[in-house]
């Protein structure tokens, strides 16, 4: 059985994924922003699944000090993690910028997973077959380095699409640099029935289960092991091509360099 960390797992696709994986007997680490909600989610998953091996950590992913604290707390408690699902995401936000003046979409959807994954890499590498699943989107747009660094204001839609492409570009770079860790970017499905989608669009196309089912499969199914550094498009139900920029080494290098500057 695997030890699996899922960010943003107190509701939506993250919570469904955590529940499905717990039903299969895995050890689950839940993450949420709100300690009360986290506690309730852990109890609920334990009750539904009869699996007591559920724990959780609180962190505000828009606050990098809070992300670093979670890295340290998890590393103190777990000597290894088998699977990390970077699921947490934000589209519409009451607060447009985090305390560093960065757009919330870039902070939560890209910079936090970047920080968290690199911070947990030592314990991921203690696993026999570590795997990272990064939640991308069908919405992907060329990343403006000024927008990423908080020097340019762009719309929520644009920031969301750019943050998801940034995550995908970095996934591919990470896979190249860490061939021993299977890293897959995934569009879990467009307009799934989640709170985030309802708030953003007021409608949905598919049930949230569609997203959760593919995350469970990508996380643990052996057939996905050979697909390091690839992009799975669940709208098509198969591996596919991401945005062209995700295959442009110069753009990837520029993104990683800018990201390091922002986070140093």
List keywords for this structure.
single chain, 264 residues, alpha/beta, Rossmann fold, eight-stranded mixed sheet, 47% helix, globular
Describe what you observe in this structure.
With 264 residues, the chain is an alpha/beta fold. The protein has one domain: NAD(P)-binding Rossmann-like Domain (Rossmann fold), CATH 3.40.50. The chain is 47% helix and 14% strand. An eight-stranded mixed beta sheet has the order 3-2-1-4-5-6-7-8, with helices on both faces. Helix 1 crosses helix 8. The N and C termini lie far apart (36 Å). The model has no long low-confidence stretch (mean pLDDT 93).
Concise synopsis of the structure shown:
47% of the residues lie in helices and 14% in strands. The chain is built from 9 helices and 8 strands.
